[in-house]
Design goal:
Strand content of chain A: under 5%
CATH class of chain A: Mainly Alpha
CATH architecture of the largest domain in chain B: 3-Layer(aba) Sandwich
Distance between the termini of chain A: 43 Å
Radius of gyration of chain B: 29 Å
Number of strands of chain B: 18
Largest sheet of chain B: 6 strands, parallel
Largest sheet of chain A: 2 strands, antiparallel
Helix content of chain A: 40-55%
Shape of chain A: globular
Number of domains of chain A: 1
Number of strands of chain A: 2
Structural class of chain A: mainly alpha
Radius of gyration of chain A: 15 Å
CATH superfamily of the largest domain in chain B: Thiamin diphosphate (ThDP)-binding fold, Pyr/PP domains
Oligomer: heterodimer
CATH superfamily of chain A: Cytochrome c-like domain
Order of helices and strands of chain A: HHHHEEHH
Structural class of chain B: alpha/beta
Strand order of the largest sheet of chain B: 2-1-3-4-6-5
Strand order of the largest sheet of chain A: 1-2
Strand content of chain B: 5-15%
CATH architecture of chain A: Orthogonal Bundle
């Protein structure tokens, strides 16, 4: 297990790692500041302004309406896999990450694809 | 013609001109000279034309001829069925140029006027992948070849036959003073020899005929690649001394090498016995037959296929297409057949771009790997495009497309009813996974559906809506976004034309134009997803497309940056614990934003944009498609989110 995976596993175990826990554990971040930081720190360059995801050499997952708990998001931010920059506290504080998390949770996220004719052709 | 035919500074002529100059000056100007005071600033005096020198007949050396070496070169090119000669005009090949336009009447080859040599080569790369044969290009052997070299490297890495010719003046005493010297070289091909398959500098017309046919044969033999012929200017320009003795050799296409039957039989046994075989391929489909052959193999085995996208190898909506489940299917595989892979190591390992750069195998330790391809048959050392060495349990040298029928037949012989039933069960599971992946793609595409800047998913869905009922061909995808393959039904061999190979920016615009030129003959609608950064390397392509009435829709994915580098810069700043906020410096293409529609219009191309509201995109694309269907190029500038 590499360093990132170990840290992520610890974060998830600490949280109990169930979807129920995750959904109840949404931190009270500041979504407005989170949007600002998301853009300034350049998260959008891989994950998209709408949190739709993207790619560099590896896929960058969609983050809108993320189901990750904030601690797991933090683990990714501190030691992301593959291409992802690893941000230190001085670049992106824990509060900033919490605010980003709140912003991602506030995004509209997915729509029913069946209702969009262009996606059914 | 005498050895002095090009000798503009020969003693006789020089003395003659000198005499004329002195005599003329003495005869025409003494009175004026006597009456006019010397100028205060002689350096600023503009000399009067020397009418005597400029109007006297030339010296009595041969000045007309009834044939030229260029004519014969055209005859040779005609035997090779070369339809086009892309070029940026230059004096070192004026002989061949004149022969094409007057002797050949600009037919086979027809000249394509390009504003940069890189455009000429890249057009040939895109064209060859659609048409299955090279066009030719020609340029100066020095400065032109330097411009052309990056595009040649792309073609080399992409294993595409590109037929490059250059002009040179071999004999020193035949070069005019000045620029002909700086445009001549002893060995001009040395510049690109690391990434051409073969080159020559013929010393006679017979030599040219043989080398021209050989070059074509070498270029077209898998693994294909660029070739280069350096053409001496005198050989092109001077009369043919002995036409009746010249002979153009017959061209016989080389049959692609098929893998050893014994090795293919062993591979068949391994694949037929495997629980989870996986086929992974990159530059497999050389011809329209390639896709059908891979489909037959996959359906025989009912196994997963991962298409790396170097060619249009496998239909995007085939139930066995597991391209976007690569890590999952490779991780479960017990036998992997890698066909015409350029970077097998990268396909079966993950890579971590950290201070300590590390890789991790994503395949099982006991999985068996079989390689089949022609790449190992021709490698060079300096440029490292061959990738990291990938271990294999069975390595078969042979052209993938040519070898597949024999492999498939061997497998069919090994499959009994029991195995067939197991195969069908496996195929059913894969089909379910494929369907789930497609549904996931649709769902992913909905995120930010109405956002501005427009998401690349929305842009691709809008494009497909406008072309899906046409006989379309995606001839380029500048930053290789995955949405077309995730959302579109890519079901024919020309639906996709592959990537640059060398990842050299400046490929997409001209290569797409070249491919569109090939598609034009087949009545197909060509569309390309064009990166903004790439377009600025070779914007003159748009003029060439307009000038030659090449029907192509450029959809500009305008993220206003060399965006991948922006992501890299963030990673660097993050690693060093410094500000990521400055990452845009030297990377973004803003302040001012480029108005690409105006740029395109300036080149004579129909254009719309910049489009920022997704609601306006569909109608704009519809209007642009109508222009393309009338036989002209069009561009729609779409301001998009980065990826």
């Amino acid at each position: 297990m590499n360093g990132f995976r170990r840290r992520l596993a610890v974060a998830l175990l600490t949280l109990g790692a169930s979807n129920a826990v995750w959904s109840q554990n949404v931190p009270a971040g500041d979504a407005v500041n989170g949007k600002r930081v998301y853009l300034v720190a350049g998260c959008y360059t891989c994950h998209g302004r709408a949190g739709q995801g993207g790619a560099m050499n590896y896929p960058a997952p969609a983050l809108a309406q993320t189901q990750l708990p904030v601690e797991a998001l933090k683990a990714f931010v501190r030691a992301g896999p593959n291409d992802m920059p690893a941000y230190v506290e001085s670049q992106l504080s824990d509060k900033d990450v919490a605010d980003i998390h709140a912003f991602l949770r506030s995004l509209p996220g997915r729509l029913p694809a069946k209702n969009i004719p262009l996606l059914n052709q | 013609m005498s050895d002095h035919s090009r000798d503009l500074s020969g003693a006789g002529r020089r003395n003659f001109l000198k005499g004329v100059t002195l005599t003329g000056a003495a005869a025409l100007t003494p009175a004026v000279v006597a009456q006019t005071p010397p100028p205060k600033n002689p350096a600023r005096v503009v000399p009067l034309p020397n009418l005597a020198v400029e109007t006297l007949p030339p010296p009595a050396d041969p000045s007309n001829q009834t044939s030229s070496g260029g004519d014969f070169m055209v005859d040779v090119l005609k035997t090779l069925d070369i339809d086009y000669l892309a070029m940026n005009c230059a004096s070192s090949f004026r002989g061949l140029h004149e022969a094409v336009i007057n002797y050949a009447k600009n037919v086979k080859p027809e000249i394509l006027t390009c504003t940069h040599e890189e455009i000429a080569v890249a057009m040939g790369q895109g064209y060859a992948k659609i048409e299955g044969k090279p066009m030719a290009m020609i340029c100066h052997g020095t400065v032109g070849l330097q411009h052309a070299s990056m595009a040649m490297y792309n073609a080399w890495c992409d294993r595409v036959p590109v037929y490059v010719m250059i002009g040179n003046i071999i004999e020193a005493d035949k070069r005019a003073p000045g620029v002909e010297w700086v445009h001549s070289a002893i060995d001009p091909a040395a510049l690109v020899r690391d990434f051409v398959k073969w080159d020559d500098q013929p010393a006679s017309l017979q030599h040219f005929a043989e080398s021209a046919v050989r070059a074509y044969k070498v270029a077209m033999t898998p693994p294909m690649g660029p070739v280069l012929l350096s053409l001496d200017a005198e050989l092109q320009e001077n009369p043919i001394p002995d036409r009746e003795r010249l002979r153009i050799p017959k061209f016989a296409k080389v049959t692609p090498p098929v893998g050893d039957p014994g090795a293919l039989a062993e591979a068949a046994k391994m694949l037929a016995a495997a629980q989870n075989p996986v086929l992974i391929c990159d530059r497999l489909a050389r011809t329209p037959a390639g896709m059908a052959r891979l489909v037959e193999l996959a359906e025989t085995l009912q196994c997963a296929v991962v298409d790396q996208g170097g060619r249009m190898n496998f239909p995007s909506r085939h139930p066995l297409n597991q391209t976007f489940r690569r890590a999952a299917v490779v991780g479960e595989a017990d036998v992997i057949l890698a066909i015409e892979m350029n970077d097998l190591y990268g396909a079966v390992n993950s890579f971590s771009d950290r201070i300590v750069r590390a890789t991790r195998a994503i395949f099982k330790p006991d999985a068996k790997i079989i390689t089949l391809g022609s790449r190992d048959l021709y490698l060079k050392s300096n440029y490292q495009d061959f990738g990291r060495y990938a271990e294999a349990d069975l390595a078969i040298a042979g052209d993938g497309e040519a070898s597949l029928p024999a492999l498939t037949e061997q497998i069919k012989r090994l499959v009994n009813a029991g195995r067939k039933s197991a195969f069908e069960a496996r195929g059913k599971k894969l089909a379910e996974a494929h369907l789930a992946t497609r549904e996931r793609a649709k769902s992913d595409a909905t995120i930010g559906w109405d956002a501005s800047p427009i998401t690349t998913a929305r842009m691709c869905a809008e494009i497909y809506s406008q072309i899906k009922d046409e006989d379309w061909s995606l001839v380029g995808n500048g930053i290789n976004i995955a949405w077309p393959r995730r959302l579109w039904n890519m079901d024919k061999p020309y639906r996709w034309n592959g990537v640059s190979g060398g990842a050299g920016i400046g490929y997409n615009a001209p290569a797409s134009a070249g491919a569109a030129l090939a598609n034009k003959r087949h009545g197909r609608l060509s569309v390309t997803i064009q990166g903004d950064g790439d377009l600025m390397f070779a914007p003159g392509t748009l003029w060439t497309a307009a000038h030659h009435h090449i029907p192509i829709l450029y959809v500009l994915l305008n993220n206003r940056a060399y965006h991948q580098e922006l992501m890299y810069m963030q990673a660097m700043a993050a690693r060093h614990g410094r500000s990521v906020e400055n990452s845009h410096i030297g990377i973004t293409i803003t302040d001012p934003n480029i108005d690409y529609a105006t740029v395109a219009k300036g080149f004579g191309v129909y254009a719309e944009g910049p489009i920022t509201d997704p609601k306006n995109l569909g109608p704009a694309l519809k209007r642009a498609v109508a222009v393309v269907k009338r036989g002209e190029p069009a561009l729609v500038d779409v301001v998009t989110d980065p990826r």
